[in-house]
Structures are given as C-alpha cells and as structure tokens.
Design goal:
It is built from 20 helices and 21 strands.
Length: 511
Amino acid sequence: MKRALLSVSDKSNIVEFAKSLIGLDYQIISTGGTYKILKDAGVSAIEIDEVTKFPECFEGRVKTLNPYIHGGILHRRDKQSHLDQAKELGVEAIDLVCVNLYPFKATIEKTDDFEEIIENIDIGGPAMVRSAAKNFDSVVIVTDPSDYSLVLNAIAKGENTVEFRRDLMIKAYEHTAAYDSMIANYMNKRFNNGMGAKQFIVGNKVMDTRYGENPHQKGGLYEFDAFFTQNFKTLKGEASFNNLTDISGAVKIAAAFGDENAICIVKHGNPCGFAIRENLLDAYTEALKCDPISAFGGVVAVNGVVTKELAEKMNEMFLEVIIAGRIDDEARAIFEPKKRLKLFEYGSSRITLSNDAIDFKHIEGGFVIQDADRVGVDEVKNAKLMTKHVASEAALKDAEIAYKVASLTKSNCVVYVKDAAMVAVGMGMTSRVDAARCALKKAKEMGLDVSGSALASEAFFPFRDSIDAAAGAGVKTVIQPGGSVRDDEVIAAADEHGMALYFTGVRHFLH
C-alpha cells in the first residue's frame, strides 16, 4: 500500500481527494486542521505524530520537520543503499505529498499585526513541497487543488509517469518560489521602503501570445492576483502582445474619469482620440475627429457598454481592437462579420482597472522599478492659479481632461482639449516646443479649431515659446506642473496673452 501525506491550508475538495486516494489503495497521513476535517468526514487517516513519533510542538511551529517524514519522501527508490538505510531506520516511503501553504497573502491583507503575520509564514510546508519535488522521480507532489482530478486520473489510468510528475515538480517549485518572493517583498516594503537588496516580480501565466512585438519573438501574458482570469474576457479573436500593451494604455486613459462616458482611441501605444460626452456614441464620434487617419486599425477603449447603435458607427471603419466594460449581444452581432476585429470586455458596466501599486520596466542588464504614478484625486482641483485671468468651470474641466491624458501619454507631451474632447496631441518628442507645434500642425491638417481650448503638459514649460505658440492658436487655459527656473517668464507670457495658467506642482513624466 502506498502512502499519501495531506497537509493543506486551502482545504477545498480535500475530503473528496482523500477518499479517492483511499479508493486507489493509498493510506492517508495528515496533520492538524487537515486531519480534523478528514476525521470529522469519516475518512480514515493517520495523524502525523504517529509517524514522527514526536508530538506537534511550539504551538504548531514544528510538525513535519522530522526524518520519518523527509526521509520517507526523499530517499531514492532506485538506490539499494537508500532502501537498505530506510529499512534500518524504520523509515517508510511517502509516495504522494499534497501541500499548499499558510495563507500569508490573506493575512497581510487583513491585518498589520506583525506577530500574526509571522505566524502565517509556513516553514514545514515549503520544506515538504521542495523535498517531494526534488524526488519527483518517485513522488507525486500536488500543490494546487485544481490538479486533484488530474492526479487521480493519472494514477487510476496508470499514467503517473516521470514526465507527469516532472510537470508537477515544476509547478511545485513555482509555488514555493512565489510564496517566498511574496514574503521577501512584504518584509522589504515594511522595513526597507519597498526597495530591498532583492526585488521579486511574480506573475501567473494566462496565455501565450501568437508572438511578441514581432513574429520572430516569443510572447506571453502573465497576471498579478488573477486580474485577467477574473476580469478580462475574450469575445472575438485573440489578443496579441501589441494588442495587450495598447489595451493597457487605452483603458487607463478611458477609465481615468470614474463613471463618465469616456472613449479613448490608441494607435501604437499613443492616444490619437479622446472624448467625454453624455452618451458613448457622441463620445466616439468626437474622439474620432482628433485623428481619424491614425485611428484606422487602432484600439478603442470604451468606459461603458457598447450597444448596437455604437457598434454600427464603429463598423464604418477598420478597427483592430475594441475593449469595453461590456459589449452587448446586439453589438456583437454587428461586429461578427468583421474577420480581423478583436473584441474584449470586463463583464461589467465600466472598465475594470487593477491599480497596481508598482511599475517596472526592463532595461539592458536588469530592470528599474518604482511606485505606480497616478494623478491625485484633488491634484487638478487644488492647482494654483498663477495669472490674473481665471478659467471658467468648463475650461477647468477641459484642463483636467488634458492633464490626465497628458500624464498617461509618452513624454515630452502636450494635450489640447476643447469641449471635453481632445483636439490635438503631441507626444514622445525630444522637445516640448516640438510637441506643441506638432500637435497644432496636425490639428490644422485635420481642420480642427483649437481656439478656446485648454492645454496641458505633463512637465513644466522651460521657456515661454510654447505659451506664445499656444496663444497664437487661441488657447485660453494652460495647466502644467511648474518648477522651471523661468516660471516667471512663462507666467508673464500667459498674462500678456490673457490666459489662465495653473500649476499643479506634480510632474508626470512617462518614458
């Protein structure tokens, strides 16, 4: 008879798993809470201290750290010397180990009590997982309740092969690595301002993308905290690597205004259209006016529900991706004939954001990491008026929109907004003056009137020339962080032109 050791924090389906193992001629060994649940359910099991010949001690801190356990797991079945020594020591083989770990994540989410947190750091569990994984040639290691049926099926059908156990071994080491990484990151956040000697970024695989940015590159999507698994739904097509990065940029802008009916159009990671309106059809129509040429083949993020009426309007041109809070059935029917169009939703009335706490970027030889950047709730509201002229309420709303879009657009960047719609944008330029001029040139080509608009920059204007150019185009309101040594010149220029100029005091570079 084979022996299985069950010791789990997540006890879902553990009773059924144990009963099935017994049906496959396994004897069950168990610990603590798992043993109690099995016993209460009438499942025959041996309590751990009968095997260890030593009681659980130190309030459960030591249960399984024992040679009868680790010897039973780790001794090699293909080495006679190991088999002889096991017999000599009275160590019996353990052939299957089912362990998942103390709920450290759940603990740090519910309490700041360090003593409770420390007690929810598993020691014996990771040791057993690693032991069983190391000896996968002979031992089945199970760390995920969703694998119970897979394991039972493999044992029952005689498919418990080395290759099968090897896959479980890899998953086991991923499990303990992620667990230890979470603990290390938490301790560094608590005691080292989040910037310790080591930084761990752990994601769970969602899917392979067909390729990376280009066909010769491999690509895949990984998630934090099951965000995509729980929220992101594919309705039509397959998201590519580039689609996913564009979607990320588009939804952050579209959702930056709470429950307002906002639409953002993105091409190659940059916004080429944005608008807020009373209804989404009008928002899309206005957003498209900013740069319909760039919008061709673009990604559209809809902070709301795509209806039949909106779908019919969108269907007038080629779009590659539509991502929305939800796309209703009538809209999906409208889109169905478009073979190259991809549809995704969050399954709710609005876009869902994960609001990750950190942001990181690969650089040659490593990565840089930082706290995630966001425009503060009252950042624009509390902006300081620097001129004699005061913006109207409507102009301030335009300024807020321009400023938030600018903060989520590649630097150097300027954004012009009029009547709650983006009318011009210049982004990713080496000069802020060039960004301003490029935006105005494009608006002129599109036949868009920027007079009366609000202009935002994600960083300070170093010279007055951008203000002079904006005034020439009829801009009436400017919002920027301020902080240049020539701020006085910029303020004076705005006063000369009768503009309202606001400083937020916060820079939002996006490189």
